[in-house]
Amino acid sequence: MMKARVTVTLKTGVLDPQGKAIEGALGSLGIEGVASVRQGKVFDIELDAGDEASAKAALERACERLLANTVIENYRVELV
Amino acid sequence: MMKARVTVTLKTGVLDPQGKAIEGALGSLGIEGVASVRQGKVFDIELDAGDEASAKAALERACERLLANTVIENYRVELV
């Protein structure tokens, strides 16, 4: 059983209203110095695969087809 | 300006229906071998702070007060 972490983040230039809201809320809570916040998603995945290469290939397919919207998001696959 | 990544994940034992749905969807898409999926959040934060220690302290305060629900979630702060 392999463990992987997939991180999906917005591409540079894509607006992130949720991140902006968090930025404002942190200021209201008195947490100073925050210049920007951008929110993304993380998926911790356990999978059975013959080897690292086939695990990575399956995870990349998962990102392209379901986990990320590649028009506006980048993804990164790490085996952990 | 410092850059940090905050990762918020569900604690072990907390049900993750969204992760379960993704698990099922990956199977339907023909991506085999996925045993479990758990979804979390990631925040990429830029902040001004005097030094690493005060940046970490501010980010931990942000997690405790806003970014994580510490009843059901763990958080991890990394300066990148």
Structural class of chain A: alpha+beta
Q: Sheet bearing the most strands of chain A, described?
A: 3 strands, antiparallel
Oligomer class:
homodimer
Count of extended strands of chain A: 3
Number of helices, where a helix is a run of at least 4 consecutive DSSP H or I residues of chain A: 2
Q: Which CATH C-level class of chain A is it?
A: Alpha Beta
CATH topology of chain A: Mth169, Chain: A
For the record, what is the CATH homologous superfamily label of chain A?
A: Phosphoribosylformylglycinamidine synthase subunit PurS
Query: Largest interface: which pair?
Result: A-B, 33 and 33 residues
State the separation between the terminal residues of chain A, measured CA to CA: 11 Å
Number of domains of chain A: 1
Shape of chain A: elongated
> Roughly what fraction of the amino acids of chain A lie in strands?
35-45%
Using only C-alpha atoms, the radius of gyration of chain A works out to 16 Å
- Major sheet of chain A: order of its strands? 2-1-3
Low-confidence stretches of chain A: none
Fraction of residues in H or I helices of chain A: 25-40%
Per CATH, the architecture of chain A is: 2-Layer Sandwich
The string of secondary-structure elements of chain A, in order, is EHEHE
Output mean pLDDT of chain A: 96
InterPro entries (chains A, B): PurS, PurS-like_sf
Keywords (chains A, B): ATP-binding, Cytoplasm, Ligase, Nucleotide-binding, Purine biosynthesis
Subcellular location (chains A, B): Cytoplasm
Subunit structure (chains A, B): Part of the FGAM synthase complex composed of 1 PurL, 1 PurQ and 2 PurS subunits.
